[in-house]
Every structure is written in structure tokens, then in C-alpha cells.
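Bug report (template v2)

What were you trying to do?
Predict the complex of my protein with adenosine-5'-triphosphate.

What happened?
Run completed; filing so the output is reviewed.

Input:
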Amino acid sequence: MARETSLFSGSPSELVGRQIASYRIEQEIGRGGMAVVYRARDLRLDRTVALKLLAPELARNDTFRNRFSHESRVAAALDHPHIVPVFEAGETDGVLYIAMRYVAGSDLRHLLDRQGPLPLPTALRIAAQVASALDAAHEHGLVHRDVKPGNILVSRGTDSDHPEHVYLTDFGLTKKSLSLTGFTTVGQFVGTLDYVAPEQISGRPVDGRCDVYGFACVVYESLTGHPPFRRDDDMALLWAHQYDAPPALTECRPELPSGLDGVFTKGLAKSPDDRHDSCLAFVAGLRSAATGGHAPTEVAFGPVAPEETRPKLPPRWAEPMFRGG
Ligand SMILES: Nc1ncnc2c1ncn2[C@@H]1O[C@H](COP(=O)(O)OP(=O)(O)OP(=O)(O)O)[C@@H](O)[C@H]1O
Ligand SMILES: [Mg+2]
């Protein structure tokens, strides 16, 4: 027992150089509420990976454990350019771990904290990539449940037409649905409630449309610098997700086309039935509103509007915006 605790909560320097399963830990990348992520060396294949060690308490929660094993299998089977490939998921000394591709760059949380709201074209480029990943997952019957900026990794793209390449990560790894339906004890860290859909809060069954809601919250934040609902405490925030209308995007960004507001109203609808059917449909709506109602013919990648209808681009649009590489 002492050993499993030290695996997770040991200071970063204690774990550096140690071997966990067939991975040698090189450096801590970051930590969230329920996991620590390290850069590590896969000793079998001699390559760099990101190794995520989940908090031991999660390994003891049967609901989480069952979902972890099921969903990491499904996620590992997803072969998509915008989903972080999972190499292995397993357990060692009572600690669940996931080895996945190491993505050099930043996550959207850090990017927004550093740069503030993104220019519309940048936000749409990132959104389109995330949307294609989410829709692909939904087609495989997998609901992400925890779409948020911290789970969107942004790395350098291939060229100036594609300045960033975006990956979605952490499928099914949220504690939210456990805690919100009463599986965890009061006071435990649940993670951010900024992106949680009304049906997740009330414990109703969720499907891909709960990700449409979380995704719409993330895109809203990309454009304004803050999520749609800001309240002083968690209860008020949960109430707002369920009953309050989100403030119009253009209250915060009056220079953006007003047609965007209606698209967010739909993406953030309280009832899943009133939302877009897919994340790409939501992005298509945004693109259409961004170009003054000219429906794009292609929604997933690349420029879609005729040159003359495109909004004037800020100079930093095509500039790389991540740390290192
Ligand atoms: N495959 C990866 N490659 C590189 N960095 C990663 C990878 N996966 C996660 N990270 C980084 O590791 C850090 C911690 O991730 P983690 O998922 O534990 O926390 P989070 O998503 O920010 O929060 P939460 O615990 O609420 O999910 C983040 O800064 C993230 O950018
Ligand atoms: Mg994460």
C-alpha cells in the first residue's frame, strides 16, 4: 500500500529515473486532479511516450475501473489523426496507467491562459479538428464526457496553411459522472464544472450530444477567454448550466458576426434534442455564420469561404503559438 501511494504522490524528482511497467520516467509534464503525466521512455520500443498515472483511489472504484478498462480499449482502437494514440493501458502495483503518444506543444488551457481569446479563424481551425475527433468517437459509441481545454493538445502543424495540429485526449477518464451521481464522497476533487452538460448534472443518460455541449463551452471560451457560465460557487454553476441562458458571445466580442450567437444558443441548448446532431454540424454553423451565412461546402478542414467573404485576418493568425516543439 505504501508503495502504490509513493508511485502517485511521490515528488516528481523521486519518480524520475524509476521504471513503471516497461517505461522509464524522465520528467513530469503536468498534473491534473486525478493523474500525473510524465514524459517517459518505452524501453521495449525505445521511444518517448507520455505516461499517465491515475490516482490510486480511482483503481479502487469499481465503476471507474470497469469503464477505464472498457474505454481505454475502445480509445486505443480509434485510429484518428486528431485523437492521441493510446499505446497501452494497464495496472502495476495498484496504479492504473496509460501510455500514449507524447505530444510536443501545449494544451488549449495553457494557450488560452497565456494568449487570451483567440482570433476567430484560429478558434475555428482548432474547433474543426476537435469536432472531427469527437464525431469519430461518437460513431464508435464512445462519449468523451470531459471535453475541456486541458484535454485538447495543440502541437505544431505541417505548414503555414495548417499552423497547428490538435489532438483530443482522455476519453472516459472523468470522475464527474461518478461524483455527480453520488459514487464519490462529498468533498473529493471533481474537476472543473465549467463544461458539464445539464444531463450529466441531473444523472440522465448521456450520449454524444453531451460532448456537443462541452465542446460548445470550449469554443465559446476560445473566443471570449472565459466559459459561458461564471459563478461564485459550484452549486450556482450547476444551476446555471441547467437553467440560465448563456450570455451572447458578441456581448464580449462585439466585432464578431452576430450570427454566431444563434449557433452557440443551439450548441448550448439545455435539452440534447435541441442541440446540433454532431460537433461538426456545430462547427459548420459557426463557419457559415462567420462568413455571413454562406454555407460552406466542406466542414472539416481547410479554408471554406471565398476569399472576398473571409474576415480580415489578424497578423498572428498564421503564427505558431505554442511553447517549444
Ligand atoms: N499525450 C500527452 N503528451 C504531452 N502532454 C500531455 C499528454 N497528455 C497530457 N499531457 C499534459 O499533462 C498535463 C496533465 O494532464 P491531465 O490530463 O492529468 O490533467 P488535466 O487534463 O489538465 O486535468 P484533469 O485532471 O482535470 O483531467 C496537461 O498539462 C497536459 O497538457
Ligand atoms: Mg487531461
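What did the reviewer find?
The two ends are 38 Å apart (CA to CA). The chain has 13 helices and nine strands.
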